[in-house]
């Protein structure tokens, strides 16, 4: 006999700060057990979905397709979206807590972790997150570019790190315009950043087996025409294809794909050469007025790599403005800051884990939140709700639908949408939409 759901009659108020995948997965998990909750999702941007829209590579539309699943929250399950609201500025976290039975902070980590080597402050050093946001049309990056333009990364690009974010950068910079069929890349940004790129050096402190990339991500690079690969390892990779198959060593999947890189022959003349440096440590960045040379240590010797731009892809950090709260070790373990206040996503765990990990974390935390809310309800404690908090400038989900329709209608051939990339651009579309509704 199925266990009775103790949460199904709850009508409590829940505020979720952040509408990226962590927040959306949590709302899904809460509503599955408690379909009558009143959930409002706040976001500092006028659009929902956070990392899905601005962090996943623009040529990975299959992964971005999770937006269609999240849309059901707003279209079918009654979740309210309040975009363009900066919690901590437009209202305080305490104001939300006073009016909600549970507040969940899901603001993520967006600041690029820095690399501590001499010369890292030279012009020409960029964080991977910033480059990805530019290619994805993040309005806070777009606003900053107005009047300044975008600079070419130059002929020689060095990427520090070899996780999936780093592999995304290599692939995006190595692609030609025709390789972006079916994407929503900001073409003018890509064309300017990548127009001169001829050589990319990717640097990992680890051996191939111990590196952080998904082998499928690296294999995707082998499909690009005009891209050559050279692998630098301190030790020899095991050979495959022994005469006696029983004697052939079994390669780790990452070693196997690196072996494919070694054996790969570029189709046609190589436009871009990618050098994979394993067991290599960045030592210093040199240059007069900007980055010129990256010195690395590999196999007991120093090597000097021409470097017009250095991209760091070594992780992300939260900022006080993004995080709103301090997360203790206990909170990292449970997701509960205290009854009524919770944390989820990267802000809880640190910047690791793919979307399925976020979903699993959300299910576990939702159970804890609902138990706390039910306990409070049984004691006669219930918040008044968010009705008296007014945000006249907030964007609604209907505003987002107008933005979505406008972007899709504006798409150039071969692209799924032409993204709006500035705050003013969003404002113009929203005002036009609202005028038509009057």
Automatic annotation (TrEMBL):
Keywords: FAD, Flavoprotein, NADP, Oxidoreductase. Gene3D superfamilies: FAD/NAD(P)-binding domain, NAD(P)-binding Rossmann-like Domain. The keyword S-adenosyl-L-methionine does not apply. This is ferredoxin--NADP(+) reductase. Its EC number is 1.18.1.2. GO terms for molecular function: ferredoxin-NADP+ reductase activity. It is an enzyme of class 1 (oxidoreductase). It catalyses: 2 reduced [2Fe-2S]-[ferredoxin] + NADP(+) + H(+) = 2 oxidized [2Fe-2S]-[ferredoxin] + NADPH. Pfam families: Pyr_redox_2 (PF07992).
């Amino acid at each position: 006999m199925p266990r009775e759901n103790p949460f199904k009659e709850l009508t409590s108020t829940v505020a979720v700060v952040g509408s990226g995948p962590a927040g959306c997965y949590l709302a899904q998990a809460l509503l599955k057990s408690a379909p009558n909750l009143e959930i409002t999702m706040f976001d500092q941007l006028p659009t929902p979905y956070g990392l899905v829209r601005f962090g996943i590579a623009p040529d990975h539309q299959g992964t971005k397709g999770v937006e269609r699943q999240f849309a059901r929250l707003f279209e079918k399950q009654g979740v309210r979206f309040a975009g363009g609201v900066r919690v901590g500025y437009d209202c305080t976290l305490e104001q939300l807590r006073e009016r909600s039975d549970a507040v969940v902070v899901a603001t993520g980590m967006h600041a690029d972790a820095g690399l501590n080597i001499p010369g890292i402050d030279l012009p020409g050093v960029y964080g991977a997150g910033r480059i990805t946001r530019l290619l994805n049309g993040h309005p806070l990056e777009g606003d900053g570019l107005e009047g300044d333009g975008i600079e070419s990364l130059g002929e020689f690009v060095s990427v520090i790190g070899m996780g999936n974010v780093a592999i995304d950068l290599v692939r995006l910079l190595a692609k030609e315009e025709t390789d972006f069929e079916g994407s929503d890349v900001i073409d003018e940004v890509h064309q300017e950043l990548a127009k001169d790129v001829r050589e990319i050096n990717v640097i990992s402190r680890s051996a191939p087996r111990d590196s952080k990339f998904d082998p499928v991500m690296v294999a995707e690079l082998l499909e690009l025409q005009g891209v050559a690969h050279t692998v630098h390892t301190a030790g020899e990779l095991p050979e495959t294809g022994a005469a006696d198959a029983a004697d052939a060593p079994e390669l780790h999947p990452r070693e196997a794909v690196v072996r494919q890189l070694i054996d790969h022959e570029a189709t046609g003349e190589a436009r871009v050469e990618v050098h994979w440096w394993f067991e290599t440590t960045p030592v210093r960045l040199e240059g007069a007025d900007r980055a010129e040379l990256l010195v690395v240590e590999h196999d007991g010797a120093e090597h000097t790599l021409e470097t017009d731009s250095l991209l760091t892809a070594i992780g992300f950090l939260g900022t006080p403005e993004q995080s709103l709260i301090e997360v203790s070790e206990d909170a990292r373990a449970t997701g509960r800051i205290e009854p009524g206040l919770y944390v989820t996503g990267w802000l809880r765990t640190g910047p690791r884990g793919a979307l399925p990990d976020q979903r699993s974390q959300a299910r576990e935390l939702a159970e804890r939140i609902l138990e706390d809310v039910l306990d409070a309800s049984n004691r006669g404690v219930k918040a008044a709700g968010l009705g008296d908090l007014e945000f006249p400038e907030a964007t609604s989900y209907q505003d987002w639908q107008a933005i979505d329709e406008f972007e899709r209608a504006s798409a150039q051939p071969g692209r799924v949408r032409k993204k709006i990339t500035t705050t003013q651009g969003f404002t113009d579309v929203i005002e036009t939409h609202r005028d038509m509704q009057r």
